[in-house]
UniProtKB/TrEMBL annotation:
The keyword Translocase does not apply. Residues 1-24, 61-86 are annotated as: Disordered. Pfam families: Fungal_trans, Zn_clus. Residues 71-81 have a biased composition (Polar residues). GO terms for molecular function: DNA-binding transcription activator activity, RNA polymerase II-specific; RNA polymerase II cis-regulatory region sequence-specific DNA binding; zinc ion binding. Residues 30-61 form the Zn(2)-C6 fungal-type domain. The gene is lepB_3. This is Transcription factor lepE. Keywords: DNA-binding, Metal-binding, Nucleus, Transcription, Transcription regulation, Zinc. GO terms for biological process: DNA-templated transcription. One of its GO terms (cellular component) is nucleus.
Length: 731
């Protein structure tokens, strides 16, 4: 038997004998037995046993798979038939490839199939296959036979590119990416202009002690006058949307921030730097003042310093100010277009921290003061709105789909309370505008928007979304839009809330509802199926409303605040898509209003020009994509040819590009010596009393459920418990 052993007697070193086991050599198995026992066997050559047994007649494996024996004549005929069938199949494949190549590459028509295949690499063949699918769809009003590029997702099939709501348009509008790429290759690259985003330079922020933290952060502060201007701009405008801080508390601390001898908490410095990172990139001229454009290169360093400071903080003593800095730093990244691929992950991490600290549960009146309860509600409202916004933009689920939150909505009140307030003021009516109106009304429509996002992005948690559901949700969302107060009257208006702030709040409330309508109708924008014509009309109307509102914000001089969202580009590409889906001779309302649509896009295009011009870390794709979409509509309307549209688009971008370079060179030269002269001397920390809301020695969020020393604060008597258990063990 294979694997058996036999014994032999051999002498050992001591003069005696010992018994040694000799392993017999394993017999070679047949091919079939090798496969049954899962042993290695070379099926190309027979094993020795099969050879000795007269292989292949006696091979157990080959006997099962070998066809019955035939004569030599029959075998020759069968082999000839198989060869002829293979030749015909190869000829058919070559003919199909030649047809694809002749469409995508007319210059190769005179070559034979083998030469063409050798000339064009495999990447180009995959592009030709994609173009063949584009020809079959026949959704382009322009001759796309000359396109030489496939969809970007075919080349980089990463999750961000395949899921993001904006990048999906490169597949849904097949002319868009070839237009941009041809423009770059023919007009931009010959002039040495490459469409690459400047990488933000991160400062080397490392601190191992509180004194080092204070010194390093203080070294990044601009002069006091500029800081006052940028902080004031943030408080007056951005804080009207996402209520992150309590303005009176912050102003009271900021009033002593520049006093000699006053200790500067690193948390306060980080809070100020995060505000500067949001305001410095706007460069929007207002009636009362204008933000300095000197610090265009600084937000990346400020954001990096705040991120590093947050990473060094312990989760045990996490305070409310830590969440405030985290929210402001994230908003600064959106304003400066920094690490945009990580936005969804970043808000998800903030949500996890907030859930760990219990911010998703209604605060207890017996533990938290009225001030802390309201601030917790506001921070949770900010986090869930930012995470839900990313869910719609990235096409990914949010943790809110699985979180049972019972926290109340923030009250519709201004900051008419403080840390010593015994109770909160009465919430104002919905028609009364306050600085918290955005959070108040967002919380009212949150259940509906959350339900829609769950149906779209978490199909495993809810039934599939049918078209009847789409119509029902459209009606509900439209009703919510119509019920939004416009705050046009003087009711609730005062000096701190001018009319344009009320318009800004109304615009953001409208945007987040319109974003849901576009998301649920997007899968039904199919020209060949007349059943879903309503989706095209709804998308067209909603997109026009978004463009008109952005034009209104631009007229008020606050269009830069809308960069916290991507509604402008989303509406531009949506209205371009539904217009291109219409035949050129169509009598539909969408086709009849195509000229007004083009004019509206031309009015909104300067908004993205301003963003690219003043944002040092901005990328050209937003402006170039919207400009390309506008030119495609002009081609579809017959007012421009393909080559003329490319030339106009390139000329406009080149002019913007050179202006941006000149402006940033001036800003860099002005800001070159600012950082060196801003080092502040260390303060005497005993000169002033400490501010409790900035002191990181204890947490004001809640009890650390993982800390073993919590009995010291709550008096739970764990020490006595240990003594009791110890005495019991001794007994």
């Amino acid at each position: 038997m294979a694997g058996a052993t036999e014994k032999s007697i051999v002498p050992n070193s001591t003069g005696g004998t010992s018994e040694r086991r000799n392993r017999r050599k394993r017999l070679q198995l047949s091919c079939g037995e090798c496969r049954q026992k899962k042993l290695s066997c070379d099926r190309k050559l027979p094993c020795q046993r099969c050879v000795r047994s007269g292989w292949p007649e006696q091979c157990s494996f080959e006997a099962k798979t070998r066809p019955p024996p035939v004569s030599n004549d029959q075998s020759t005929q069968q082999q000839a038939r198989r060869n002829s069938e293979e030749i015909r199949d190869l000829q058919a494949e070559v003919a199909q490839l030649k047809g694809l190549l002749s469409k995508a590459y007319p210059q190769y028509e005179v070559q034979n199939g083998a030469d063409a295949l050798r000339t064009i690499d495999r990447a180009e063949l995959s592009q030709a296959v994609f173009l063949d699918e584009t020809f079959k769809d026949d959704q382009s009003p322009v001759d796309v036979s000359k396109f030489e590029l496939s969809d970007p997702r075919e080349r980089s099939p990463h999750g961000y590119y395949s899921q993001h709501a904006l990048l999906q348009f490169f597949r849904e509008i097949p002319q868009l990416f070839p237009f941009i790429k041809e423009n770059a290759d023919e007009c931009l690259k010959p002039r040495g202009v490459y469409l690459k985003k400047e990488k933000p330079v991160r400062n080397e922020y490392k601190a191992n002690s509180p004194l080092q933290e204070q010194s390093t952060l203080e070294g990044l502060l601009p002069p006091k006058d500029d800081v006052d201007l940028l902080v004031s701009y943030y408080l007056n405008y951005f804080e009207q949307l996402h209520r992150v801080i309590h303005v009176p508390t912050f102003k009271r601390e900021y009033a002593t921030f520049w006093l000699p001898g006053r200790p500067r908490y690193p948390a306060m410095i980080a809070l100020v730097l995060s505000m500067l990172s949001i305001s410095a990139c706007t460069s929007v001229s207002l009636n009362e003042t204008s933000t300095p454009s000197t610090y265009g290169t600084m937000p990346a360093q400020w954001i990096s310093a705040c991120d590093e400071w947050l990473r060094q903080q312990s989760s045990k003593n996490r305070k409310l100010v830590h969440y405030q800095i985290s929210c402001l730093t994230y908003l600064a990244k959106r304003m400066n277009m920094i690490r945009k691929k990580s936005w969804w992950k970043e808000t998800g991490a903030l949500m996890q921290n907030a859930i760990t600290d219990g911010l998703h549960r209604d605060p207890s009146p017996t533990i938290d003061s009225p001030y802390m309860r309201e601030m917790k509600r506001r921070i949770w409202a900010v986090l869930r709105e930012l995470d839900l916004q990313n869910a719609f933009e990235f096409g990914l689920p949010t943790l809110l789909h699985n979180v049972d939150s019972n926290i109340s909505a923030p009250s519709n009140i201004d900051d008419e309370f403080n840390e010593r307030s015994k109770e909160l003021p009465t919430s104002k009516p919905p028609t009364h505008y306050t600085s918290a109106s955005y959070q108040f009304h967002s919380a009212r429509t949150l259940p509906l928007r959350l339900e829609i996002s769950q149906r779209l992005f978490s199909p495993g948690l809810s039934p599939a979304l049918t078209y009847e559901d789409v119509l029902r949700y459209t009606h509900a969302l439209t009703q919510e839009i119509h019920s939004l107060p416009r705050w046009n009257s003087d009711e609730g208006a005062n000096d701190t809330n001018p009319p344009r702030l009320r318009t800004l709040t109304y615009a953001f409330l409208q945007f987040q509802l319109q974003q849901c309508i576009l998301a649920i109708h997007r899968p039904y924008l199919q020209r060949d199926d007349s059943k879903y014509w309503l989706s095209e009309n709804v998308t067209h109307q909603i997109s026009r409303d978004i463009l008109l509102m952005n034009s209104t914000l631009a007229g008020l001089g606050i269009q830069a605040l809308a960069f916290l969202r991507e509604d402008l580009l989303l509406a531009s590409l949506s209205i371009t898509r539904v217009t291109l889906l219409q035949p050129q001779n169509s009598t539909s309302t969408i086709t009849a209003s195509s000229l007004s649509t083009i004019n509206l896009l031309d009015q909104c295009l300067p908004i993205l020009e301003t963003r690219y011009l003043h944002n040092f870390h901005g990328e050209p794709w937003c402006f170039l994509t919207m400009c390309a979409a506008t030119m495609l509509l002009k081609i579809h309307a017959g007012s421009e040819t393909w080559q003329t549209a490319k030339s106009l688009c390139a000329e406009r971008f080149l002019d913007l590009h050179y202006r941006r370079i000149a402006q940033h060179q001036d800003s860099a030269s002005q800001a070159g010596g600012l950082a060196a002269g801003q080092q502040q001397s260390m303060r005497d920390e005993t000169s002033f009393p400490a501010s409790e809301w900035l002191d990181s020695n204890y947490s004001d969020i809640g009890v650390d459920c993982f800390g073993l020393d919590m009995d010291m604060d709550l008096g739970l008597g764990f020490d006595n418990t240990w003594e009791t258990w110890g005495s019991a063990l001794q007994d």
